[in-house]
Amino acid sequence: SYVMANKRGYLYVPTFRGRTDPPDPEICWAYIDRQLTDDEILVVKPHPYGKRYHLNGCKHIVEASRMEPSVNYLYDCDVLITDYSSIMFDGYLLGKPCVLFEKNTGYTETRGMYMPYPDRYSSRYVTSEAALLDAIRSADGLTETERKCVDYVAGSCDGLSCERIVRLIEEMIA
Question: Taking 80 as the threshold, does the pLDDT of residue 116 lie above it?
Answer without folding.
Answer: no
